[in-house]
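Fresh eyes needed here. Kindly weigh in on this sequence plus C-alpha coordinates:
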Amino acid sequence: SFYDLGISQWNIKGLKHSLGEMISQDTRFQNVEVKRQFPGLGLRTMSLSARPIYTGSILTMILLAIEDITDRRAYEDERNTLLLQAQEAKKEAEQANQAKDLFLAMLSHELRTPLTALSMQAQLLQRSLLDEATVKRACESIIQSVGVQTQLIDDLLDVSRIITGKLEINLQAVDIASVVRDAIET
Protein backbone atom coordinates (compact mmCIF):
# COMPACT_ATOMS: atom_id res chain seq x y z
CA SER A 1 0.00 0.00 0.00
CA PHE A 2 1.15 3.52 -0.75
CA TYR A 3 0.42 4.42 2.85
CA ASP A 4 2.95 1.84 4.10
CA LEU A 5 5.91 3.13 2.04
CA GLY A 6 9.02 4.10 3.97
CA ILE A 7 8.13 4.19 7.62
CA SER A 8 4.49 5.00 6.86
CA GLN A 9 5.26 8.68 6.34
CA TRP A 10 2.49 8.84 3.71
CA ASN A 11 -0.09 7.42 6.11
CA ILE A 12 -1.70 10.82 6.60
CA LYS A 13 -5.37 11.24 7.40
CA GLY A 14 -5.81 14.31 5.12
CA LEU A 15 -4.07 12.58 2.22
CA LYS A 16 -6.18 9.44 2.66
CA HIS A 17 -9.30 11.60 2.67
CA SER A 18 -8.24 13.46 -0.52
CA LEU A 19 -7.41 10.24 -2.36
CA GLY A 20 -10.62 8.57 -1.19
CA GLU A 21 -12.69 11.57 -2.26
CA MET A 22 -10.95 11.61 -5.64
CA ILE A 23 -11.87 7.96 -6.26
CA SER A 24 -15.46 8.19 -4.99
CA GLN A 25 -16.28 11.48 -6.72
CA ASP A 26 -14.14 11.01 -9.84
CA THR A 27 -12.21 14.23 -9.28
CA ARG A 28 -8.59 15.36 -9.14
CA PHE A 29 -6.63 17.22 -6.54
CA GLN A 30 -3.64 19.47 -6.84
CA ASN A 31 -1.07 21.01 -4.56
CA VAL A 32 -2.05 19.30 -1.33
CA GLU A 33 0.79 20.22 0.99
CA VAL A 34 2.19 17.72 3.45
CA LYS A 35 4.87 18.52 6.00
CA ARG A 36 6.62 15.42 7.29
CA GLN A 37 9.85 14.16 8.76
CA PHE A 38 11.71 11.95 6.25
CA PRO A 39 14.63 9.70 7.25
CA GLY A 40 17.90 11.10 5.93
CA LEU A 41 16.18 14.28 4.67
CA GLY A 42 14.71 15.82 7.79
CA LEU A 43 11.55 17.91 7.85
CA ARG A 44 10.32 18.47 4.30
CA THR A 45 7.29 20.08 2.70
CA MET A 46 5.83 18.08 -0.17
CA SER A 47 3.19 19.07 -2.69
CA LEU A 48 0.99 16.23 -3.92
CA SER A 49 -1.25 16.20 -6.98
CA ALA A 50 -3.29 13.22 -8.16
CA ARG A 51 -5.65 12.21 -10.94
CA PRO A 52 -7.37 8.97 -11.84
CA ILE A 53 -6.28 6.95 -14.89
CA TYR A 54 -8.92 4.85 -16.64
CA THR A 55 -8.67 1.96 -19.03
CA GLY A 56 -11.90 2.29 -20.91
CA SER A 57 -14.43 3.15 -18.20
CA ILE A 58 -12.63 1.30 -15.39
CA LEU A 59 -10.39 3.10 -12.91
CA THR A 60 -7.12 1.19 -13.14
CA MET A 61 -4.57 3.52 -11.52
CA ILE A 62 -4.01 6.80 -9.78
CA LEU A 63 -1.24 9.04 -11.04
CA LEU A 64 0.29 10.69 -7.98
CA ALA A 65 2.93 13.39 -8.40
CA ILE A 66 5.02 14.37 -5.39
CA GLU A 67 7.17 17.51 -5.46
CA ASP A 68 9.55 18.63 -2.71
CA ILE A 69 8.74 22.32 -2.21
CA THR A 70 10.65 22.82 1.04
CA ASP A 71 13.11 25.34 -0.41
CA ARG A 72 10.40 27.23 -2.27
CA ARG A 73 8.31 27.47 0.93
CA ALA A 74 11.38 28.69 2.83
CA TYR A 75 12.01 31.37 0.17
CA GLU A 76 8.35 32.38 0.21
CA ASP A 77 8.36 32.58 4.00
CA GLU A 78 11.52 34.69 3.92
CA ARG A 79 10.05 36.92 1.22
CA ASN A 80 6.85 37.36 3.26
CA THR A 81 8.90 38.22 6.34
CA LEU A 82 10.91 40.78 4.36
CA LEU A 83 7.72 42.18 2.87
CA LEU A 84 6.20 42.61 6.33
CA GLN A 85 9.41 44.29 7.54
CA ALA A 86 9.37 46.61 4.52
CA GLN A 87 5.72 47.49 5.15
CA GLU A 88 6.49 48.20 8.80
CA ALA A 89 9.49 50.35 7.82
CA LYS A 90 7.30 52.24 5.33
CA LYS A 91 4.66 52.79 8.02
CA GLU A 92 7.31 54.07 10.44
CA ALA A 93 8.74 56.37 7.75
CA GLU A 94 5.27 57.76 7.03
CA GLN A 95 4.71 58.36 10.75
CA ALA A 96 8.09 60.07 11.01
CA ASN A 97 7.22 62.22 8.00
CA GLN A 98 3.89 63.20 9.59
CA ALA A 99 5.67 64.02 12.84
CA LYS A 100 8.16 66.15 10.91
CA ASP A 101 5.34 67.99 9.13
CA LEU A 102 3.58 68.61 12.45
CA PHE A 103 6.86 69.80 13.97
CA LEU A 104 7.47 72.21 11.09
CA ALA A 105 3.93 73.58 11.32
CA MET A 106 4.30 74.13 15.06
CA LEU A 107 7.78 75.59 14.59
CA SER A 108 6.60 78.12 12.02
CA HIS A 109 3.84 79.20 14.41
CA GLU A 110 6.29 79.46 17.30
CA LEU A 111 8.74 81.49 15.19
CA ARG A 112 6.01 83.82 13.93
CA THR A 113 4.65 84.72 17.39
CA PRO A 114 7.80 86.54 18.63
CA LEU A 115 8.19 88.20 15.24
CA THR A 116 4.65 89.58 15.51
CA ALA A 117 5.46 91.03 18.92
CA LEU A 118 8.70 92.52 17.54
CA SER A 119 6.83 94.06 14.62
CA MET A 120 4.13 95.56 16.86
CA GLN A 121 6.69 97.08 19.22
CA ALA A 122 8.77 98.45 16.35
CA GLN A 123 5.67 100.10 14.86
CA LEU A 124 4.92 101.57 18.26
CA LEU A 125 8.45 103.00 18.46
CA GLN A 126 8.06 104.52 14.98
CA ARG A 127 5.43 106.83 16.37
CA SER A 128 7.34 109.83 17.54
CA LEU A 129 5.00 111.04 20.29
CA LEU A 130 5.60 108.34 22.93
CA ASP A 131 6.29 108.88 26.57
CA GLU A 132 9.43 107.43 28.12
CA ALA A 133 7.59 104.59 29.95
CA THR A 134 5.98 103.38 26.70
CA VAL A 135 9.33 103.47 24.89
CA LYS A 136 10.92 101.54 27.76
CA ARG A 137 8.15 98.88 27.71
CA ALA A 138 8.44 98.58 23.91
CA CYS A 139 12.22 98.11 24.15
CA GLU A 140 11.81 95.50 26.90
CA SER A 141 9.23 93.68 24.80
CA ILE A 142 11.57 93.71 21.80
CA ILE A 143 14.42 92.37 23.92
CA GLN A 144 12.13 89.68 25.33
CA SER A 145 10.89 88.69 21.83
CA VAL A 146 14.46 88.50 20.56
CA GLY A 147 15.24 86.26 23.54
CA VAL A 148 12.29 83.98 22.70
CA GLN A 149 13.40 83.85 19.06
CA THR A 150 16.96 83.03 20.14
CA GLN A 151 15.66 80.27 22.46
CA LEU A 152 13.61 78.75 19.61
CA ILE A 153 16.67 78.72 17.37
CA ASP A 154 18.72 77.18 20.19
CA ASP A 155 16.00 74.52 20.56
CA LEU A 156 16.28 73.76 16.85
CA LEU A 157 20.02 73.40 17.23
CA ASP A 158 19.38 71.05 20.18
CA VAL A 159 17.20 68.88 17.93
CA SER A 160 20.10 68.72 15.51
CA ARG A 161 22.44 67.78 18.36
CA ILE A 162 20.01 65.07 19.51
CA ILE A 163 19.98 63.57 16.01
CA THR A 164 23.78 63.55 15.85
CA GLY A 165 24.12 62.32 19.46
CA LYS A 166 25.97 65.44 20.64
CA LEU A 167 23.38 66.96 22.99
CA GLU A 168 24.53 67.95 26.46
CA ILE A 169 21.74 68.36 29.01
CA ASN A 170 21.88 71.41 31.28
CA LEU A 171 19.24 71.05 34.01
CA GLN A 172 18.00 74.19 35.74
CA ALA A 173 15.01 75.33 37.75
CA VAL A 174 12.29 77.31 35.99
CA ASP A 175 9.99 79.83 37.64
CA ILE A 176 6.63 78.92 36.08
CA ALA A 177 4.90 82.05 37.38
CA SER A 178 7.51 84.21 35.65
CA VAL A 179 7.06 82.30 32.40
CA VAL A 180 3.27 82.78 32.55
CA ARG A 181 3.61 86.52 33.37
CA ASP A 182 6.03 86.94 30.44
CA ALA A 183 3.63 85.14 28.12
CA ILE A 184 0.71 87.31 29.22
CA GLU A 185 2.78 90.46 28.86
CA THR A 186 3.92 89.47 25.37
